Amino acid sequence: MGEYLIIGNGTAAVGCIEGIRSTDRESGITVISAEEHHVYSRPLISYYLEGKTDLERMLYRPKDFYGKNGVKLIYGRAEKLDPKKRTVTLADKQKKTFDKLCICTGSSPFVPKFEGLETVKKHFTFMTLDDSLALEKALTKDSRVLIVGAGLIGLKCAEGIMGRVGSVTVCDLADRVLSSILDSECAAVMQEHLEKQGMKFMLGDTAVKFKGNKAFMKSGAEVGFDILVLAVGVRAETGLAAQAGCEVNRGIIINDTMQTTVNDIYAAGDCSEGYDSSTGTNRVLAILPNAYMQGRCAGINMAGGESSLNDLIPMNSIGFFGLHCATAGAYPADADIFEEKSGNGIRRLYVKDDCLAGFIIIGDVNRAGVYTSLVREKTRLDERALEMLKASPSLAIFSPEIRRRKLGGAV
């Protein structure tokens, strides 16, 4: 089928490699990696800081992955993409040609233009293994750490370093933690748990200016620190795609085969903008499982197979200090809400038009997979199924036909 080129070396790239090899075992595959590391599981960088894993166990695929799949791995940064000449030029000026290309460039930290940031000697982002290793070198048992951003990245960073520093303060302009995935009441449950672990919060407030080791907050407060971590947000890496003439919005526009608007160029993962079936809109779904599925879909199609994805949804499974949280889908304002509280946990289900539109679970997340399938497949729920959903969700909620499919023929 020709020469395959993949820009990026993360989860989506692995999916793409495995998608290609499921259809084409012979043609060459080249991967261009801006990070000089074997592919690793990015969500584990906080667990590395916490001492719960090591560099070996962080590998997303075994060390022989590239060799077994006939992949040539090149460390370097792609700087120019020419779709007419079918070439990619790296920072060191070497050029790579391709017949089919997949852009898996992911996302990068969004760092606002803070006044005085250049005066802060120890400031970091927290997106990559190199970020984690650099931050680790700066930590001391007495460090006062200020984290700007109370989203997933900021809070996982805070969890990772809590036992290694003197104090951790997290600020965010939003009025709650994890504001992109939790509503106010569920966020309050998680915040209370985090505060019990010693984490401090300044919510509805954020840094606007720095001078040395002092942050000046929007509220007028002043916060001293030794180490600053910026976890304000991320942006899809779309520059190469835009340069090549691909349509770009917040992410690289793709269809349900992961094809961009330029022939033979595909995109997958956090850099892409695809269809969110829970809302019926196109958006960036920067989530590891979706990145792999998109990459695999792209790889199959690049190799001449047939694959499509039209049921991706936002979903998260995360835990902090032993308290787990799972979310998926959308939370429509006009949905019927079923809620159950127990101890420090909460289960909130959003039902609209006889379908589970979305859910938030904090605490016991053992049945979250059933809920996720219901959201993804837009399963119609009759009165009996709704009662089962509220009581103890199981495969019995699904029709016999769907159960047979999920269980490989068994009922």
UniProtKB/TrEMBL annotation:
Gene3D superfamilies: 3.30.390.30, FAD/NAD(P)-binding domain. Residues 4-295 form the FAD/NAD(P)-binding domain. Its cofactor is FAD. The keyword Flavoprotein applies. It holds the Pfam family Pyr_redox_2. Keywords: FAD, Flavoprotein. InterPro entries: FAD-bd_OxRdtase (IPR050260), FAD/NAD-bd_sf (IPR036188), FAD/NAD-binding_dom (IPR023753), FAD/NAD-linked_Rdtase_dimer_sf (IPR016156). GO terms for molecular function: oxidoreductase activity. It comes from the Bacteria. This is Pyridine nucleotide-disulfide oxidoreductase.
